[in-house]
Amino acid sequence: MTMEKKVSYGEAICSGFQYLLGKYPNVFTIGQGLWAPWYVGNSMKNLDKDFGVGRVIDSPVSEAACTGAAIGASLCGYRPIIIHPRMDFMLLTIDQVVNQAAKWSHMLGGQAHPAVTIRGIINRGGEQGAQHSQALHAWFAHVPGLRVVMPATVKDARDLLVASVLSDDPVLYIDDRWLYEMEDVIPPVEEEDLSEIKPQILKEGKDITLVGSSFSAQMCLEAGDLMTDKGIGCEVIDLRVINPLDVSLVVESVKKTGRLCAVDGGWRTCGLAGEVIVSVMEEIDLEVLKTPAKRITLPDAPAPSSKVLEEAYYPSIDEICSSIIEQMG
Amino acid sequence: MGKFKSELGNLVNPACFHNSLEVKGIPRDILFSQLKMMITIRVVEEVVADLVNEKMAKCPCHLGIGQEAVAVGVSKHLKNTDHVFGGHRSHAHYLAVGGDVYSLFAEILGKVTGCSKGMGGSMHLFAGDKGFKGALPIVGGTTPIAMGAGLAAKMDGNGDVAVSYFGDGAIEGGVVQESLNLASVLDLPVLFVCENNLYSSHLDIQLRQSSDRVSRFADAHNIEARVVDGNDVVAVSNATEELLQIARAGKGPGFLEAITYRWRGHVGPDENIDVGVRRKNEDLLAWKNRDPIRRLMEGMQNKKLLEKGEFEKMESDIRAFVNKSKEKALEAPYPEQSALLDLVYSEKK
Question: Contact, A109 vs B119, CB < 8 A?
């Protein structure tokens, strides 16, 4: 049955949960706010009513114990999703994510597979301030043994969630509140092997390669559409999976365009944009490059609360367009 | 120090609890297998100590000599469908549920035939078919994971339980406190087993907490608790049986605090004399009078359940078996270099 109605990114996440909880009895979710209507936007609406509080568990304010519990259940035949309504608070469980989940397979000779999905939501702006704004995906992309996914499209919001939960590896699924209202028509679910999911081209172009993930991929698309009017053809690549990071599609694109601009919602230093650029540079001949690669990121500062400072803090479409024009010479 | 007040009374007085165990009414074969397992654990640990001294074992080895009765008493009531988790000092926990001696030596030596395929060494143990799901060294790190296994067991509805072994140091960690709360709130079928040996590496409990009775944290979370002489395998076993009956019936978690003492130092074969408060040579000698093996042996002899010379023969047979396993492990091959990258993620379906 094809869905002809448009759904939003937030609704698509919810339909991913509906699909998983409906089809797989060993799937359950646990986290703070799962019984409250506002905690996670519209992305988990009514799941507790549809599937019962035994499978949609609202938890004490214990990020570490609940993440550890999800890991433990995943070692015993279940496929849990631990929900962290903000990535910032997920830091309280970093031992369980980095020392435990990511490493159990390796440390125990490939005999233990924590098939757990850890959902960390990026939720920023609205003067929430520094401890309610972080995009820490680069930290987790750095950790071997974790898979890290960042859906940028409505379809991926649902299907990357499904693939993450069905993977036998620990997966960090990062969605972005700023995408929740974006709408699209999407086909029925097709289950995919997460280890085979690669970056995708959102828009083809011959003049410059723009690379982003999650919200920044959509920003690149918007900038690319604006540049079409100026006669500049932008090729927009959405990374989708940032751990393990496979940049072969980006390499092929840069061989064609000769120009690279990486856009990222995290901080500048030691961030994902720098990683993308270096990974591409390792694979191309310098003659291919028409101009140095550039990155557009947050400045190296905690997020401000003041609305005026917020406007200066977050990357804008204008900033991306200016960089494109500058790189085009 | 600070607001410290001892609550454990005679349990922490090394001049007490030297008695032979009362074994009346316990079937001989059970006593026999418990004695055999405690001796096996001790002999294995002594051989590991030698391997470290001889520089053949290079990874950090945290020995449990003197604490054998806890793992053995608890394991009497476990099934291989239960889920057991431990920490850095878990050779005994692994062996007591049936973990293989040879595989343990091979793992400590880093060989590919080790229980973790040579990828973990002493501090990262696995024996999944025996229910031993993982022992890992971050202090308190496996406790919330054991809670998850308990949640899985609850959802399975088979009466299985999860066991979390940890020490008196781990109870100071936030995640262990969170786990106690979670177990209580979700009514999880889990058994917390705290081997309170009064030390967290070098530092005496008097300098780290306001009381030496770790089970007070179980009381705070309305968790059924027992405090026992951890060097009395009968007492450990009886308390475990009571707590597991409750947990398996779905009536909630249990907390077993077992008072004990380690004969060697925090890590390696050295005794760590004069490291921390209350670890002078006379303290160690006094605590050795609470030997769990001697006390069970004498208890069995008192009831004529062990003949003259039978204990010595048992020990000698075990030593021969353990040494043979060690020799075999010394000859085993190391992992291939490909293991570095191949085991990072699970294999493709």
Answer: yes
What is the C-alpha R_g of chain B? 20
Asked if A177 and A140 touch (Cβ cutoff 8 Å), the reply is no
Which residues 170-209 of A have a C-beta within 8 angstroms of B?
Answer: 193, 195
Q: Shortest CB distance from B126 goes to which of A70, A73, A108?
A: A108
Look at residue A37 in the predicted model and tell me its pLDDT.
75
Q: Do A68 and B174 touch (CB under 8 A)?
A: no
Cβ-contact A274, A241 below 8 angstroms: no
pLDDT attached to residue B170:
98
Instruction: Kindly report, residue by residue over B20-52, the tens digit of the pLDDT.
Output: 999 999 999 999 999 999 999 999 999 999 999
Work out the minimum CA distance from A166 to partner chain B, whole angstroms: 11
For the question of an ipTM over 0.95, the answer is yes
From A19's Cα to the closest Cα of chain B, the distance in A is 20
Summarize the confidence of residues B217-246 as an average pLDDT: 98
Residue A38's pLDDT is what? 77
Closest B-chain CA to A70: B148
Written as one string, the DSSP assignment of B293-323 is HHHHHHHHHHTT-S-TTHHHHHHHHHHHHHH
One-letter amino acid at B225 equals A
Q: How confident is the model at residue B275 (pLDDT cuts 50, 70, 90)?
A: confident
CB neighbourhood size of A249 (10 A): 18
**Distance from C-alpha of A116 to C-alpha of A167, rounded to nearest angstrom:** 8
Best probe of the A interface among B112, B346, B347, by most A CBs < 10 A, is B346
B33 phi, psi to nearest 5 deg: -70, -35
> Which residues of A are less than 8 Å from B182 in CB distance?
59-60, 62, 65-66, 69
- In terms of phi and psi (left: phi > 0; alpha: psi -120 to 50; beta: otherwise), the region of A299 is beta
pLDDT band at A2 (very low <50, low <70, confident <90, very high): low
CA dihedral of A52, A58, A63, A68, whole degrees rounded to 10: -30
**Looking at the predicted structure, is the pLDDT value of residue A1 above 70?**
no
Closest CA to A144 of A247, A272, A244: A244
State which residue of chain A sits closest to B349, comparing Cα positions: A193
Mean pLDDT, rounded, for A143-161 = 98
Report the candidate in B7, B45, B89 with the shortest Cα–Cα distance to residue B259. Answer: B7
Residue A27 confidence (pLDDT) above 90: yes
Give the distance, in angstroms, between the CA of residue B13 and the centroid of all CA atoms in the same chain.
22
Nearest CA to B142 out of B84, B191, B75, B207 is that of B84
Q: What percent of chain B has pLDDT over 90?
A: 97
In this structure, what are the phi and psi dihedrals at residue B228, rounded to the nearest 5 degrees? -135, 160
| Structure-token pair, residue B272 | 């760590």
A198, A240 contact by CB (below 8 A) = yes
CB-nearest partner of A105 from B151, B153, B346: B346
CA B9 – CA A138 distance, rounded (Å): 52
Say how far apart CA A305 and CA A168 lie, in whole Å: 40
Chain A residues in contact with B348 by the CB 8 A cut-off are: 193, 195
Nearest-CB residue to A62 (from B162, B181, B342): B181
DSSP result, B220-279: HTT-EEEEEETT-HHHHHHHHHHHHHHHHTTS--EEEEEE---SS-SSSS---TTSSTT-
Q: Which of A21, A75, A79, A117 to mutate to test the interface with B (most CBs of B within 10 A)?
A: A75
HSE, CB side, 13 Å, CA atoms: give it for residue A16.
30
